Amino acid sequence: MAAPVRHVGHYIQRNSRLLLNNFEQLWGHRTFGCTPLQQQTAEAIKESTETIVIPRKKTWNKEAVLEALAATVSRDPTAYPYQFQDDPYLNPRTYPEFMLFSLSQESGRAAAKYFVNSNPKFFTKDFAEPHIPCLMPETVTLCLEEVSEEALKERINLRKVKAAVDMYDQLLQAGTAVSMETTHDLLDLICIYCDRDPVEDKGPQTEDTEGAEEVKRKKGRVRWASDLLNSTWRENNNAERIFNLLPERDTQCYSALIRGMVKHGAYEKAFSIYTDMLNNRLTADVHIFNALISAAPEVRYKYNERWDVITELLNQMRQQKVQPNLLTFNSVLKALRRCGSLARAQSVHTLNEMKAVRIAPSLASFNHILAIFFKGASRQANGDILQEVMSELAGTSFTCQDPDDVHFFTSAMIICMEVKDLEMAYKVQKLVEVNENWRLMGDSYQRSIYYGRFFSLLCMMEHIDVVLKWYRRLIPSLYYPTYQALRELLQALDTDSRLDLLPTIWKDICTLGHYNKSALVEELLSLMARDKHSPEVQESFAECALEVKSVFDGEKGKPSLEWSASPLSDVTSLLLRASKTQQAWTMLELFKSKNRVPAEGLLDEFLSACRSEGSPQMAVELVQMSSAFCLSATPTLAKRTLAEFDLTEEQRSILSELESAGEPSE
């Protein structure tokens, strides 16, 4: 064992020297008896290491991990929208519940915010981790009572319009000069809220309060009548008074006043203030021009005069060397929507000008273009415009740059529905699915319109298998269908001869809360009872008919529907075809209790079912029921029963009397 040990020791010693030599080459601050070549190599390595820059630590935003996890999963089409997943019991399962839940959620949020902001002393502790400032109570209590510019800034930050104006007047009376920056902020505050304190979120409304304020719905949003009245610009309000008291007025002061006047309906006065600014040899900013361009249709009545005003403002922008932005061109396009026939040519010129100054159009720009070209009777003739727009937007990811961006997808889908262009609808939907473009679809009302038109177009023009694929994909995670949409689905099933799926659709109708729509239920029954099918399908139809009957009878806690002759006949016929004769007889008795008259064809079908089951007594009673309804088919039914059934003498006597009583006298 000694020899191997010596060899191992020699091997370690030799390799240790090699490692030492490598170490000396890497660290040249000591020679360790190195050769000159080794010293040069070490010095070169030392110089190269001094130039190495260690990269800074990579920082990630707080949502990076959540975004990475979200990218690994896809949307669950069977799940309810995220905003409704607080409590599974309260998840809306029907369209009325969806509307009620949405309004209740907003009302609850407003009530909670009102309570938190009104009682901040109860919410001084923050145990949340991580800290979320937007969920903490806002500071609404004034802390500075002395007359100072700092107190004025506090009132401006808290949006206390009247308190800020009072503090400004006190400063002027005390001879204290207010900085121009604070004055700008004050004018902006007054002009935004039209010289009134912003309406605070109130708690639950009482009946008297609700009766005093008229609720107006416009584009799916509820607005209070008091808000509409408060948005009117008053003559010589505090904004104008403070503006006139200023010893020096710069462009920002004029900008606040002009934009406030345009926002609150004082269009003529806004142009007058702009003229006064030009007379004082001041240059306007881009915000002033944007506001005036949007107000141009309000100050002129003729289309060409409106365009002349817009052209003059654009020329003045060029003369004053004011660089336009995206909102400038969008304001022009929006104003062109009210300029009649000349709008089409000018809108194309506007888009070309945007490209010339290297400003990319936003979704709002294309929404205005669609509104200009698809107007009135010309909607059907301008399909190429939508094709060009979608070709340009294909595969693009958007961010919100204009408040009107959220209207594009809904407008595009409405146009696809009107021109019956399914291929274009698919392109619009594909654009929605690019990255996070779905965020620009607007509120729940706009999304409902979008998916409603899309689903209607699918039912109208697509194969039923594709329709059902989209049906499972959209409902209920993205779209709560109206009963009209479900009627279109029933028609699509009828067109492609897939009526065997009607019982499944009925379950969805119940789940979505449309079982109380009589027109929808009657159409479902009519489709099931129109033709005869295989025994398996007829059995499923009969089970579905019994469930429908429970809805009409008000069972299972559901509101009852009014029986008419049509659904009574359809349910009876479906039960007969599934050999449920006894239950069908119960339906015939309902005819009498509901004062409804059965169709003669139904009685013939019922008589055939009695013959198949060998039930002469039920056949006799059927003829007697026909006589009670005074039907003209009674003699025919009696004659047929006498010929096809093995009857007793008593039964034959009864039928003979009914046959002779129904025959016309000579």
Question: What is the element layout, followed by pairings?
Answer:
Layout: H1 2-26, H2 36-50, H3 64-70, H4 95-118, H5 149-157, H6 161-173, H7 180-192, H8 207-212, E1 215-218, E2 221-224, H9 225-230, H10 238-245, H11 251-263, H12 267-279, H13 286-299, H14 303-319, H15 326-336, H16 343-356, H17 363-373, H18 383-393, H19 408-419, H20 422-432, H21 444-461, H22 464-474, H23 483-495, H24 502-511, H25 518-530, H26 535-552, H27 565-577, H28 581-593, H29 600-613, H30 616-628, H31 634-644, H32 649-662
Antiparallel strand pairs: 1-2
Describe the structure.
This protein is mainly α and 666 residues long. Among the domains are: 2-43, no CATH class; 136-201 and 227-282; 497-594; 597-666, no CATH class. Helix content is 62%, strand content 1%. It is built from 32 helices and 2 strands. The protein has helices spanning 2-26, 36-50, 64-70, 95-118, 149-157, 161-173, 180-192, 207-212, 225-230, 238-245, 251-263, 267-279, 286-299, 303-319, 326-336, 343-356, 363-373, 383-393, 408-419, 422-432, 444-461, 464-474, 483-495, 502-511, 518-530, 535-552, 565-577, 581-593, 600-613, 616-628, 634-644, 649-662; strands spanning 215-218, 221-224. Strands 1-2 form a two-stranded antiparallel sheet. Helix 11 (251-263) runs parallel beside helix 13 and helix 18 (383-393) packs parallel to helix 20. It is elongated, with a radius of gyration of 40 Å. Mean pLDDT is 81; it is low at 1-37 and 201-229.
